[in-house]
């Protein structure tokens, strides 16, 4: 909790290792005032793309070296100021930061203090690719506006409601506790947003609905949401576990690692790169773009077809598993880049599951839309929905709700 702020704008920052995505929203009507991306930070070929939506302006680009995150956010602030939306505006209520890993300590959006930042740093060993970048973004934003509330919204927070039976791995308890080894889950802001929007689509309250959410992008995860609370999710200690993804293997026998060390002479770092960056769809067929894979399938490419079939097989396994976990399912919701746009994926994932009450209407499934929609026939016992995710809006809403208390 923090002192109430009269402003109604929230700046959402998603800081990656070499990029910063941002959106400025007015929370009176959730309108986006500006959006942008700074990429390739630290390189000679850095680029900032800024779109001032409030003024209906066209996108502007800056190309050239941006040395670090401090320089990147300073450039963002200058772009916003040029549109009359500067960070010094009294209308700015807070800055909301996406933080990938919050461990078990953070189960809700949290105003960032020195103690909070120290805990995020302590979690770096279980999120070495993400938390350091998030920390850099936070510190840079604090330096720009030290007087403004900075709020961390954690990818893992939505999944902290999982029971121990779902969150614990079956390994020695003392070892697991000493090294914080357990299922944390990720994409939590998306799963939270989509599960609520699915309930709304059905005309029900979230607490009255059981939903299987399938967040299918280059990274992919599934969750079982019971009455608005996550009870299981596919990603684990890291985002590597679970579904087949663009470049990640998802579920794999842990002994594969030992086998590669002993028989292929691979180092731990080499295996890390293999499983995270050279596996999944790209490892199976050389492409991680589902549109290209489907094009190749349509042309009779056997390798692309096998990759697609493996992807769908894993997806069906999780649908069935989470159906069993929930006992009763009201809806399955597809979201993110692949989930929202790849009709063949949705059709194939549900095909053959009619005995579970699942079906897809071919005509409804083929419709392209940015709005939440049902794609199941009226007779289906379980609704199948396409619900566009909006993680930035979710972060902004959680941030604003906290700072206006």
How would you summarize the topology of this molecule?
Blueprint: E1 9-15, E2 20-26, E3 31-39, E4 47-51, E5 60-63, H1 69-82, E6 92-99, E7 110-111, H2 114-122, H3 131-144, E8 150-154, H4 164-167, H5 173-178, H6 188-201, E9 210-216, E10 220-226, E11 229-233, H7 255-263, H8 268-277, H9 280-285, H10 290-298, H11 302-326, E12 331-335, H12 336-341, H13 343-350, H14 362-366, E13 373-374, E14 383-386, H15 391-403
Parallel strand pairs: 1-6, 6-8, 9-12, 12-14
Antiparallel strand pairs: 1-2, 2-3, 3-4, 4-5, 7-8, 9-10, 10-11, 13-14
Helix pairs in contact: 1-3, 10-11, 11-13
Write a concise keyword list for the protein shown above.
single chain, 405 residues, alpha/beta, eight-stranded mixed β-sheet, six-stranded mixed β-sheet, 15 helices, 38% helix, globular
Provide a descriptive summary of the structure in words:
The chain has 405 residues and is α/β, with parallel strands linked by helices. It has helices at residues 69-82, 114-122, 131-144, 164-167, 173-178, 188-201, 255-263, 268-277, 280-285, 290-298, 302-326, 336-341, 343-350, 362-366, 391-403, and strands spanning 9-15, 20-26, 31-39, 47-51, 60-63, 92-99, 110-111, 150-154, 210-216, 220-226, 229-233, 331-335, 373-374, 383-386. An eight-stranded mixed β-sheet has the order 5-4-3-2-1-6-8-7, sandwiched between helices. The longest helix has 25 residues, at 302-326. The protein is globular and about 55 Å long. The mean pLDDT is 93.
């Amino acid at each position: 909790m923090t002192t109430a702020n009269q402003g109604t704008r929230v700046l959402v920052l998603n800081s990656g290792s070499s990029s910063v995505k941002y959106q400025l929203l007015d929370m009176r009507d959730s309108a986006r005032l500006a959006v942008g991306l700074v990429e390739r930070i630290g390189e000679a070929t850095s680029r900032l793309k800024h779109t001032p939506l409030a003024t209906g302006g066209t996108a502007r680009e800056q190309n050239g070296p941006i040395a670090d995150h401090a320089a990147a956010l300073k450039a963002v602030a200058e772009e916003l100021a040029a549109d009359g939306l500067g960070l010094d505006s009294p209308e700015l209520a807070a800055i909301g930061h996406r933080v990938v890993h919050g461990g078990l300590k953070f189960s809700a959006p949290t105003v960032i203090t020195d103690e909070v930042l120290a805990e995020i740093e302590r979690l770096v060993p279980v999120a070495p690719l993400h938390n350091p970048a998030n920390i850099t973004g936070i510190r840079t934003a604090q330096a720009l506006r030290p007087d403004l509330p900075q709020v961390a919204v954690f990818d893992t927070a939505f999944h902290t409601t999982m029971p121990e039976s779902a969150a614990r791995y079956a390994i020695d308890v003392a070892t697991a506790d000493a090294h914080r080894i357990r299922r944390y889950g990720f994409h939590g802001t998306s799963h939270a947003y989509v599960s609520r929007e699915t309930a709304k689509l059905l005309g029900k309250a979230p607490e009255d609905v059981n939903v299987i959410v399938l967040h299918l992008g280059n990274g992919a995860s599934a969750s079982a949401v019971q009455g608005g609370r996550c009870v299981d999710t596919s990603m684990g200690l890291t985002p590597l576990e679970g579904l087949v993804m663009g470049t990640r293997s998802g579920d794999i026998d842990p002994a594969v690692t030992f086998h590669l060390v002993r028989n292929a002479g691979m180092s731990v770092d080499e295996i890390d790169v293999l499983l995270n960056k050279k596996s999944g769809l790209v490892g199976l067929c050389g492409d991680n773009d589902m549109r290209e894979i489907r094009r190749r399938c349509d042309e009779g490419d056997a390798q692309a077809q096998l990759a697609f079939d493996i992807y769908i097989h894993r997806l069906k396994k999780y649908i069935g598993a989470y159906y069993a976990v929930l006992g009763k399912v009201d809806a399955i919701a597809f979201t993110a880049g692949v989930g929202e746009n790849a009709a063949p994926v949705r059709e194939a994932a549900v095909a053959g599951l009619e005995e579970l009450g699942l079906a897809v209407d071919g005509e409804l499934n083929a419709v392209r839309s940015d709005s939440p929609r049902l794609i199941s026939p009226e007779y289906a016992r379980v609704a199948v929905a396409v619900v566009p995710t909006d993680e930035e809006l979710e972060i902004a809403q959680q941030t604003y709700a906290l700072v206006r208390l």
